[in-house]
Amino acid sequence: MKADSPSFAILHLFATGSYGLRQGLLQIGVLSLQKGQSVLKEWFINPEAEFGRSVQKQSKISKEQAKSAPTWQEQKAEVQEYLSSFTHVFFFQERHEHIWFKNYILAGMPSPPVCADLAVLSSFFLPHLNLMEVGDLVALSTAAQKKPASQPMPVALTALHTQLFKLLEVLLQKIPSTPEDEPGEPTLFLQLLQQVLNLGTVYMGTAWRALQAAAENIETLEPLDLHWLTPSPATDVPVLPYHLRKLLSSWLPTVTDATVVKPRVDIAQPSDQLIHDALHAWYKKHGLPERYAQMEYSKFCNKALTDKGTFVAEAGTGTGKTMGYLMAAAELLRLNPGRKVVIATATKNLQEQVMQGEIPRLRFKGGLHAHLRPAIVKGKNNYLCLSALLDLYDELVVQEKGTIREGLSWLSLVLRVYQTQGEVEEIPHNIRAILPDTYRLLSEANAQEVCVPKLCQEPAKCTYARHMEQAYAADIIVTNHHKLLQLPPKLTDLIKHCIIDEADQFPDFARSALSMNFSLGVVEARLLRPLLGKNYRKGFLDRVAERVVHHAETETAQLVLDEIDSIHRDCDTIRTSGELIQALPIQGEQRWQEEVALVENGRWIKREFSADIEQALQELLTAIQFVAGKIERILRLLKMPEDKTFSRLETYKEKAAEFADSLQKITSDFPARKWIHVLEKSGQNWSVSKMPYYLQDEMEKLQNIYPSLLFTSATLYVGGNTQYFRNQLGRSEPFEQEVRYLSPFNYEQQEKVHAVVPAFIPCYEHKMAQDQKQAWLQTSMETLLKCIVALNGRTLVLFTSRRDMDDAYRWLYSRLPAYDIELLKQEGTSLWEIRRFRQEEHSVLLGLDRMWSGVDFPGVTLSQVIVFRLPNPSLGNPLVAHRREVEGGYFWSKFYYPASQHKLRQGFGRLVRREKDKGSFVILDSRVHHTARMQHLKDELPVDITPFHAGEDLENWLLKTLLPKLELASEWERRGISF
Ligand code: SF4
Questions:
Q1: Rounded to whole angstroms, what are the CA distances from 750 to 6, 860, 922, 966?
Q2: Per-residue pLDDT tens for 426-472?
Q3: What is the pLDDT of residue 836?
Q4: Is 748 inside any structural domain?
Q5: Which domain range does residue 346 map to?
Q6: Under a CB-based contact definition with an 8 Å cutoff, are residues 845 and 808 in contact?
Q7: Which pLDDT band, with edges at 50, 70 and 90, does 241 fall under?
Q8: How many structural domains compose the chain?
Q9: Separation of 450 CA from ligand 1 center, angstroms?
Q10: How far apart are CA 592 and CA 244, in angstroms?
């Protein structure tokens, strides 16, 4: 029976399988939030289908227990009756839970409670927590309690409960009171919150409705301080920037320890014994056995960090590389206070692992390194500019030019500044879905793009500047390859020791960091759209024109208006020249000096297209230079620097001058051996760039900055030496010292990896006839499906081309649901998909470049890696094509073959991450067996590859050999399926 007044509950499910309808529900928990009650109800439901080991492990419910429980049909009435006593239910919406809620829990209820998704609310109001699933909350909760989750359902409910209260606290207790000096003004937060809640009832569905009800009836929950929640003031009074500043200043964290200590001139080198003892103490603290390879590796890192020179160490999977070098760095810093070590990684994953996983474990309380101060340094483009946020506020709210949705997007960015110190890297997909304007505002307030220090309104509070202050005060600085090459001299002067991890990717990142880029999309977004306006939004030039008529003398006003007209024409020229390049028949990336097919006078001709591009770029460059010059002239005419509107013109002048400068640099010096000029088209945008081919000069600079430099990675050697790595860096002589620590896993003897190639699949060829290609694709897809189905998911499929990946996705999409296997595909950084794959055992992840290295899926969730096509470098890739020209006959042995060997080894390395991991490695590309010039690829793998010459042989092997070895044979029997 529903209560008269609102009543709240938190609900959580453990569901089996993936998302299909064949799966069974296992466990439901409901925690009532009525005042004075904390009633927990739990039900076990007998699953209608098999449930995986991970669910069994998480829920701590054995299969026997589950089987003796009632089915959903038997339990439905009781569960639904209990749920009907609540008006509102909060839950953490995950995909399978959502389906269960819709199809089972709420289905058929006469008046179901309003359901609110805590994930959406959390993403908006607590973005720093980056919570994507209830597992994150449980982990936080159990970590806080320092004990394992012995009763998963109550722990999950408690975690959800805590989350709800955190949200309410943010909503209620962070509201600044009305300032005494401006009585009667409404507070910014209350006003916008009210808009959030009002909007919720119209657009945002149940989550916002529930939040509103919860906020209005907060006294039914727990005793929180309620005096903040006064009735909403009138909403038509404009909110002044004063409130925003107050809000921001009350929220921004302060840097407490910014003392920069100068390094000592001499250095005390930790002895091998000290490294040994420190690692021992660490093993003991964390209950780990001694790892011989890690000890040796750490001692080598110690030498590399304290001796002069450039060192190289490959540490195979399982060595314990990250802690190995961190321990050497920590001991160096302990003996040499004031020194700093910088660690650069290629991927964000590893950066997170270092900052959030390994360094906290190293700094355990009472340990030798408890006082180490780490800091992360990211690019300026990862930060929001407060000054720009104030401008946006002025435009959207004070001048009432924004929609409510834009206002909410703006609010979500402000909350992000507060909660994450201004970082904007990952906007969660649920926020993207409900507030798409967030993206646009994000680019309009991106510190990298909009920072003009002399116009800054909040220099003392700049989030990027504060972030850099933390780096000056830190002992260990973690950054990425790209940023390593752009650290300010003020910081690099303090650092002498550098570790470059994931070093095999360093040459490519270095090249990209050193390249110059010009993108039409960026010019459109940063210059043309703000100046000219779009849709209902007036352009900045029109605003200046309006203002100049009222504030300047008639003669000056006329001159300014003439210049504005002329700028409009220049902007048209920029767009027209841009469209000419956009119309060129180019796919993806292409070097300028290549030929393209063009239609001229109705017939196809082939010709070098650099002339067309260069002409269009020249026109574009001249027009941008004109825009900069004319804005400069307007500023000289107006002479009103204190006027805010006019002074913002300065920003656009600087932008235009910057664009012109970079375009001029890119178009100069062409063609040249030492530069690679690239034109890239994607969708409605194109960009041109110029990247260096040779890296010797940059390497010399790096070695001068960091006298002790260590390159390390799990895969640096190819063919037993570092020649390929050296070739990429343009280094002819060996490094000071090169060491290789092989993986301690014995793949073959311990039968960890079973590698096979279905040799019956036709060989792939670049220029295949259509029917041959169809036959290849059909057999490849059928074989792929069989391998995935046999292992019940648990598979990572690695692709070298997006087209192949999309084809496979389409093929599998309609077929996998029949087997209850979830299909995931890499999109961008794919943080959500990576987590989902880790969490959901019966899933398959299709991935491109990024998935070949730098991602970790320990345990049974990854029991099979499938390489769809051999990772040979694409000859169309501009860098590869340039290399081919420059290196001539040496290209193949110096770069092409080693690159494929290296990448295949990286893909292989995904499979076994921990001692107990095992699985199959399938190369679907039969060329590795049939084509003589591809045979070398096999040499780089630590196992033999067994070929199968008929589909039935592969099926037999999967079912009769592989599944028993992976202890999955009985699961296959229970599933009752066949190929
Ligand atoms: S210094 Fe630059 S990035 Fe920082 S707030 Fe000011 S304008 Fe923005």
A1: 61, 17, 18, 12
A2: 677 667 766 778 888 887 888 887 787 877 877 887 889 988 999 99
A3: 81
A4: no
A5: 292-373+477-511+696-741
A6: no
A7: very low
A8: 5
A9: 8
A10: 49
